[in-house]
């Protein structure tokens, strides 16, 4: 598929068929993800890949708000149909350690030196490469977040070390519905001239 077609067709898919995802497609997603840029080539990301139905079910059990919490209804019903889940994690410490090395020289490891938390920025870029690879494979994918209150249960369920924090999750599978869903049904894409300022604001 042409690159411009990949960019144009990329959208968040929120419902999937029961067709399995080929293991080689999952591997290609991961190989492409680790080609993302990272500050200082720190590569502080990690990925927990869930392809077995029991593991996917355990993810939803650990990450779903308890009764009385945020109501996710239809969205959750659709997302639970994804046969593959990838937890995208990042290590702030990996970046602080890398920039304390001699060629960077921030020996005090003060995170206030960072204009933005690039550990999450880089993990986000790796996630985008997964989303684009999914399109190129003829698959659907959706990136979504993990609520802070759910992180301890995820850590326990999957043995995630304290050093790593979730940036988000990629759900992957064969699209189950070609109709746009979620925000694109209600909100048009902003015109380019509304968001691009050339020369100055």
Write up this protein:
By secondary structure, the chain is of the alpha+beta class. The mean pLDDT is 92. Helix 2 runs antiparallel to helix 6 (118-136) and helix 3 (53-63) runs antiparallel to helix 7. The chain has a four-stranded antiparallel sheet with strand order 1-2-4-3. The chain has helices at residues 3-9, 23-33, 53-63, 73-79, 92-98, 118-136, 151-158, 192-195; strands at residues 45-50, 84-91, 140-144, 164-173. It has one domain: NADH Oxidase (3-Layer(aba) Sandwich).
Outline type: globular
**Residue share in helices?**
25-40%
Largest sheet: 4 strands, antiparallel
Based on CA atoms alone, the radius of gyration comes out at 18 Å
Number of domains: 1
Coarse structural class: alpha+beta
User: Would you identify the CATH H-level superfamily?
Assistant: NADH Oxidase
Whole-Å distance between the termini? 36 Å
User: Any idea what the CATH architecture is?
Assistant: 3-Layer(aba) Sandwich
Number of H- or I-type helical stretches: 8
Low-pLDDT segments, ≥5 res:
none
List the helices and strands and how they pair.
Blueprint: H1 3-9, H2 23-33, E1 45-50, H3 53-63, H4 73-79, E2 84-91, H5 92-98, H6 118-136, E3 140-144, H7 151-158, E4 164-173, H8 192-195
Antiparallel strand pairs: 1-2, 2-4, 3-4
């Amino acid at each position: 598929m042409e690159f411009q077609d990949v960019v144009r067709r990329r959208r968040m898919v929120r419902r999937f068929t029961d067709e399995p995802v080929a293991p080689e497609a999952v591997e290609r997603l991961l190989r492409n993800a680790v080609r993302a840029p990272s500050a200082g080539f720190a590569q502080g990301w990690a990925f927990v890949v869930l392809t077995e139905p029991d593991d996917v079910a355990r993810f939803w059990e650990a990450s779903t708000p308890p009764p009385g919490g945020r109501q996710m209804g239809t969205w959750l019903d659709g997302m639970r149909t994804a046969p593959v889940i990838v937890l995208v994690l990042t290590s702030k410490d990996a970046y602080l350690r890398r920039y304390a090395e001699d060629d960077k020289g921030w020996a005090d490891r003060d995170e206030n030196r960072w204009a933005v938390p690039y550990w999450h920025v880089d993990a986000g870029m790796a996630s985008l490469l997964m989303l684009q690879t999914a399109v190129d494979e003829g698959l659907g994918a959706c990136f979504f977040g993990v609520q802070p209150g759910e992180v301890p249960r995820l850590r326990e369920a999957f043995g995630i070390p304290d050093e790593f924090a979730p940036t988000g999750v990629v759900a992957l599978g064969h699209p189950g519905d070609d109709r746009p869903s979620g925000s694109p049904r209600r909100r048009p894409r902003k015109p380019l001239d509304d968001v691009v300022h050339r020369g100055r604001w």
